[in-house]
Amino acid sequence: MKGVIALYEAFKHAKRALRWGAAGLLALLLISAVPARAAEMREPDVSPRMLVPVGHTVGIKLFSKGVVVVKLPEGGTPARTCGLRTGDVIVECAGSAVTSTEQFQSLLQESGGGETDLQIRRDGGSMTLSVLPAQNEQGVYCIGAWIRDSMAGIGTMTFYDPSTGVFGALGHGITDTDTALLMPFSNGSVLPSTVKAVKKGETGAAGELRGDFDLTEDLGPLYANTSAGIFGTLKTQGLKDDGAMPVGRPQAGPAVIRANVRGDEVAEYDIEILKVISGGNDGRDMVISVSDPDLVAVTGGIVQGMSGSPILQNGHIVGAVTHVLLNDPTKGYGILIDHMLEAAGDGVD
């Protein structure tokens, strides 16, 4: 509970460090005369969705549904012989649901070296393979495959919906580092985080934020890992909506991103939206360029860990940072906030 409030207070009071752009919100009101009866039949005004743009880093831990096969060694291993492939997700072993790498290993020991059925997911489908575990030099039954059941790292929270408690982060999914495939989601959470150091981005080499986070203190559980971001619900309900902004659509021109690249400080940095891409996908809905000299001095531009930094324009939250261009770290891509909200599902509807 204390960690949730600390995170919220960090981005709520960060306004003292923000440098607001000169662009204002232009409202065009079209007024027309209508008969009194028609005026009575007008549909009620629809208020825009309001979100708090966060911009603070969070620690992220995610556990997969099943275990992911991340690598297969060369040679005639049981895994290769039975037809397992890199990227397969083992969800059952001998009729029991697989919940972790340790539990999967225990199920193999129970087989006693006998033929064992593995239910796997591959390319959106399901199939059953029969494997014959073999003993290693320590007498432990194995199939000869590297598997993974969880990941942890640092990213940036994009928004918090004060009406529902739902938050979104990253602007892209969490993928396995070896297979580059979206991690199958079982459960996870976000944790308080503080930026301790920055590895600057350079041409041909992505930089990164380096931070500390407490694995024992959860700010709230995750409920989805999607190609448009990760989503969850903060544990504390009823937080104030100080700083909430309406959702908007981006256009080419000046904007700012809200980011946390020093300690707990959240600040706004100038960027330029170079292009809005019609029909963009995979978190590449707009091309952005960092123009703020302070941010370039600290990070070199966009670095890993900044993914999810909200993009603000004309008093609206319009998207989030997602990718960096390796040949120019001052440039990258962003996702539309509408796409994140669609992926968030019923949690924000």
Describe the 3D structure.
- This protein is elongated.
- It is mainly beta and 349 residues long.
- A hairpin with a 2-residue loop joins strand 19 (310-313) and strand 20 (316-325).
- It is built from six helices and 21 strands.
- The protein has two domains: 50-63 and 151-348, Thrombin, subunit H (Beta Barrel); 73-144, Pdz3 Domain, CATH 2.30.42.
- The chain has helices at 2-12, 36-40, 78-82, 101-111, 293-299, 337-344; strands at residues 50-53, 57-71, 89-93, 96-97, 116-122, 125-131, 134-135, 141-142, 146-160, 166-169, 185-199, 208-213, 220-226, 229-233, 245-246, 253-262, 265-276, 286-290, 310-313, 316-325, 328-336.
- The protein starts with a helix and ends in a 5-residue tail after the last helix.
Termini Cα gap: 25 Å
Indicate the radius of gyration in whole angstroms: 24 Å
The CATH architecture assignment of the largest domain turns out to be Beta Barrel
> Which strand order do you get reading across the main beta sheet?
2-9-10-14-13-11
- The whole-number mean of residue pLDDT values reads 86
- The run of helices and strands is HHEEHEEHEEEEEEEEEEEEEEHEEEH
Number of helical regions: 6
The unreliable regions are 1-5, 11-42
Helix content: 10-25%
Q: Remind me, CATH topology of the largest domain? A: Thrombin, subunit H
Number of domains: 2
Q: What is the oligomer described by this structure? A: single chain
Classified by CATH, the class of the largest domain is Mainly Beta
What composes the largest sheet?
Answer: 6 strands, antiparallel, barrel
Give the strand content.
Answer: 35-45%
Class from secondary-structure proportions: mainly beta
Q: What general outline do the C-alpha atoms trace?
A: elongated
Q: How many beta-strand segments?
A: 21
